[in-house]
Amino acid sequence: MALIVGEGYFICNGALLILFISLCLHHRAFGRMFRRCVFELEDPNRDAFEVLRVIHDFHKTIKGWFSETSEVYSPYILVQLIFTVLMMICLLFQLDLELNHIDFNINIILLTFATSASNLFIYCYFGKMATESYAQISDCLFESNWYTHPVNLQKHFILLIANAQTSLFYHGFGFTVLNLQTFNTMFRTVITYYMGLKTLTSK
Prior knowledge:
Mean pLDDT: 86
Number of strands: 0
Number of helices: 5
Strand content: under 5%
Radius of gyration: 23 Å
Number of domains: 1
Structural class: mainly alpha
Order of helices and strands: HHHHH
Helix content: over 70%
Largest sheet: none
Shape: elongated
Distance between the termini: 35 Å
Protein backbone atom coordinates (compact mmCIF):
# COMPACT_ATOMS: atom_id res chain seq x y z
CA MET A 1 0.00 0.00 0.00
CA ALA A 2 2.80 2.41 0.91
CA LEU A 3 4.52 1.62 -2.39
CA ILE A 4 1.35 2.44 -4.34
CA VAL A 5 0.92 5.73 -2.47
CA GLY A 6 4.57 6.60 -3.07
CA GLU A 7 4.33 5.84 -6.78
CA GLY A 8 1.13 7.88 -7.03
CA TYR A 9 2.79 10.84 -5.34
CA PHE A 10 5.82 10.79 -7.63
CA ILE A 11 3.64 10.47 -10.75
CA CYS A 12 1.35 13.36 -9.75
CA ASN A 13 4.23 15.52 -8.57
CA GLY A 14 6.18 14.79 -11.74
CA ALA A 15 3.23 15.80 -13.93
CA LEU A 16 2.68 19.04 -12.00
CA LEU A 17 6.41 19.80 -12.04
CA ILE A 18 6.61 19.35 -15.82
CA LEU A 19 3.57 21.59 -16.23
CA PHE A 20 5.16 24.23 -13.99
CA ILE A 21 8.41 24.15 -15.96
CA SER A 22 6.39 24.52 -19.17
CA LEU A 23 4.59 27.56 -17.75
CA CYS A 24 7.87 29.22 -16.76
CA LEU A 25 9.41 28.55 -20.18
CA HIS A 26 6.33 30.13 -21.76
CA HIS A 27 6.89 33.23 -19.61
CA ARG A 28 10.41 33.48 -20.99
CA ALA A 29 9.13 33.02 -24.56
CA PHE A 30 6.47 35.68 -23.99
CA GLY A 31 9.17 38.06 -22.82
CA ARG A 32 11.11 37.57 -26.04
CA MET A 33 7.97 38.00 -28.15
CA PHE A 34 7.14 41.18 -26.25
CA ARG A 35 10.60 42.57 -26.96
CA ARG A 36 10.08 41.99 -30.68
CA CYS A 37 6.74 43.82 -30.50
CA VAL A 38 8.43 46.81 -28.83
CA PHE A 39 11.14 46.86 -31.51
CA GLU A 40 8.40 47.45 -34.08
CA LEU A 41 8.08 51.00 -32.69
CA GLU A 42 11.35 51.75 -34.46
CA ASP A 43 9.86 50.78 -37.82
CA PRO A 44 8.90 54.04 -39.60
CA ASN A 45 6.44 52.14 -41.81
CA ARG A 46 4.33 51.04 -38.84
CA ASP A 47 1.67 53.17 -37.17
CA ALA A 48 3.04 53.89 -33.67
CA PHE A 49 -0.44 54.02 -32.11
CA GLU A 50 -1.35 50.64 -33.58
CA VAL A 51 1.91 49.14 -32.33
CA LEU A 52 1.26 50.61 -28.88
CA ARG A 53 -2.23 49.05 -28.88
CA VAL A 54 -0.73 45.65 -29.70
CA ILE A 55 1.89 46.09 -26.98
CA HIS A 56 -0.76 47.08 -24.44
CA ASP A 57 -3.01 44.11 -25.27
CA PHE A 58 -0.08 41.68 -25.24
CA HIS A 59 1.13 42.98 -21.88
CA LYS A 60 -2.37 42.70 -20.44
CA THR A 61 -2.55 39.09 -21.61
CA ILE A 62 0.86 38.19 -20.17
CA LYS A 63 0.13 39.84 -16.83
CA GLY A 64 -3.30 38.23 -16.54
CA TRP A 65 -1.98 34.79 -17.44
CA PHE A 66 0.87 35.06 -14.91
CA SER A 67 -1.50 36.19 -12.15
CA GLU A 68 -4.00 33.41 -12.83
CA THR A 69 -1.45 30.59 -13.00
CA SER A 70 0.23 31.94 -9.87
CA GLU A 71 -3.06 31.80 -7.94
CA VAL A 72 -3.82 28.28 -9.22
CA TYR A 73 -0.41 26.96 -8.20
CA SER A 74 -0.30 28.89 -4.91
CA PRO A 75 -1.85 26.25 -2.58
CA TYR A 76 0.10 23.42 -4.23
CA ILE A 77 3.39 25.32 -3.92
CA LEU A 78 2.85 25.91 -0.20
CA VAL A 79 1.97 22.26 0.47
CA GLN A 80 4.85 21.07 -1.70
CA LEU A 81 7.43 23.24 0.07
CA ILE A 82 6.26 22.19 3.54
CA PHE A 83 6.10 18.51 2.58
CA THR A 84 9.52 18.58 0.93
CA VAL A 85 11.18 20.30 3.90
CA LEU A 86 9.64 17.83 6.38
CA MET A 87 10.66 14.90 4.20
CA MET A 88 14.25 16.14 3.93
CA ILE A 89 14.47 16.61 7.71
CA CYS A 90 13.23 13.06 8.31
CA LEU A 91 15.55 11.65 5.65
CA LEU A 92 18.59 13.36 7.15
CA PHE A 93 17.66 12.05 10.59
CA GLN A 94 17.13 8.56 9.18
CA LEU A 95 20.44 8.78 7.34
CA ASP A 96 22.20 9.64 10.60
CA LEU A 97 20.72 6.53 12.19
CA GLU A 98 21.64 4.33 9.23
CA LEU A 99 25.29 5.38 9.45
CA ASN A 100 25.56 3.27 12.61
CA HIS A 101 24.85 0.10 10.60
CA ILE A 102 25.34 0.76 6.90
CA ASP A 103 23.28 -1.39 4.52
CA PHE A 104 21.41 -1.09 1.23
CA ASN A 105 18.77 1.20 2.76
CA ILE A 106 21.27 4.03 2.90
CA ASN A 107 21.30 4.18 -0.93
CA ILE A 108 17.52 4.54 -1.00
CA ILE A 109 17.66 7.31 1.62
CA LEU A 110 20.37 9.19 -0.28
CA LEU A 111 18.49 8.86 -3.56
CA THR A 112 15.22 10.06 -2.00
CA PHE A 113 16.96 13.00 -0.32
CA ALA A 114 18.66 14.01 -3.58
CA THR A 115 15.33 13.75 -5.41
CA SER A 116 13.57 15.92 -2.82
CA ALA A 117 16.33 18.53 -2.87
CA SER A 118 16.32 18.59 -6.67
CA ASN A 119 12.54 18.95 -6.69
CA LEU A 120 12.78 21.96 -4.36
CA PHE A 121 15.58 23.52 -6.41
CA ILE A 122 13.72 23.12 -9.71
CA TYR A 123 10.61 24.85 -8.39
CA CYS A 124 12.66 27.73 -6.96
CA TYR A 125 14.87 28.07 -10.05
CA PHE A 126 12.06 28.15 -12.60
CA GLY A 127 9.94 30.38 -10.34
CA LYS A 128 12.84 32.85 -10.34
CA MET A 129 13.10 32.55 -14.14
CA ALA A 130 9.41 33.43 -14.56
CA THR A 131 9.71 36.47 -12.28
CA GLU A 132 12.80 37.75 -14.10
CA SER A 133 11.17 37.19 -17.50
CA TYR A 134 8.24 39.37 -16.52
CA ALA A 135 10.54 42.02 -14.99
CA GLN A 136 12.37 42.29 -18.32
CA ILE A 137 9.16 43.58 -19.90
CA SER A 138 9.40 46.81 -17.91
CA ASP A 139 13.10 47.14 -18.80
CA CYS A 140 12.32 46.55 -22.46
CA LEU A 141 9.67 49.27 -22.48
CA PHE A 142 11.90 51.77 -20.68
CA GLU A 143 14.88 51.12 -22.98
CA SER A 144 12.84 51.62 -26.16
CA ASN A 145 12.68 54.87 -28.12
CA TRP A 146 9.27 55.86 -26.69
CA TYR A 147 10.56 59.38 -25.91
CA THR A 148 11.02 60.13 -29.63
CA HIS A 149 7.28 59.79 -30.34
CA PRO A 150 4.57 62.45 -30.00
CA VAL A 151 3.70 63.64 -26.51
CA ASN A 152 0.23 62.07 -26.49
CA LEU A 153 1.80 58.71 -27.31
CA GLN A 154 4.47 59.18 -24.64
CA LYS A 155 1.77 59.62 -21.98
CA HIS A 156 0.26 56.24 -22.80
CA PHE A 157 3.71 54.68 -22.84
CA ILE A 158 4.59 56.07 -19.40
CA LEU A 159 1.41 54.54 -17.96
CA LEU A 160 2.28 51.23 -19.58
CA ILE A 161 5.81 51.32 -18.11
CA ALA A 162 4.43 52.12 -14.66
CA ASN A 163 1.95 49.25 -14.90
CA ALA A 164 4.67 46.83 -15.99
CA GLN A 165 6.84 47.64 -12.97
CA THR A 166 4.54 45.68 -10.65
CA SER A 167 6.44 42.54 -9.68
CA LEU A 168 4.78 39.17 -10.26
CA PHE A 169 5.97 35.85 -8.86
CA TYR A 170 4.91 32.32 -8.03
CA HIS A 171 4.29 31.98 -4.32
CA GLY A 172 2.78 29.81 -1.63
CA PHE A 173 -0.26 31.79 -0.45
CA GLY A 174 1.99 34.82 -0.02
CA PHE A 175 4.04 33.13 2.73
CA THR A 176 6.98 32.40 0.47
CA VAL A 177 8.16 33.30 -3.02
CA LEU A 178 9.79 30.87 -5.41
CA ASN A 179 13.38 32.01 -5.96
CA LEU A 180 16.89 30.81 -5.14
CA GLN A 181 16.90 32.72 -1.86
CA THR A 182 13.90 30.63 -0.78
CA PHE A 183 15.77 27.46 -1.72
CA ASN A 184 18.72 28.57 0.40
CA THR A 185 16.43 29.41 3.33
CA MET A 186 14.59 26.09 3.09
CA PHE A 187 17.82 24.12 2.96
CA ARG A 188 19.18 25.93 6.00
CA THR A 189 15.87 25.23 7.78
CA VAL A 190 16.28 21.52 7.05
CA ILE A 191 19.77 21.51 8.55
CA THR A 192 18.64 23.50 11.60
CA TYR A 193 15.72 21.21 12.43
CA TYR A 194 17.82 18.13 11.77
CA MET A 195 20.43 19.33 14.26
CA GLY A 196 17.64 20.09 16.73
CA LEU A 197 16.23 16.56 16.40
CA LYS A 198 19.68 15.06 16.75
CA THR A 199 20.32 17.08 19.92
CA LEU A 200 16.98 16.03 21.44
CA THR A 201 17.45 12.33 20.71
CA SER A 202 21.05 12.25 21.91
CA LYS A 203 20.07 13.26 25.44
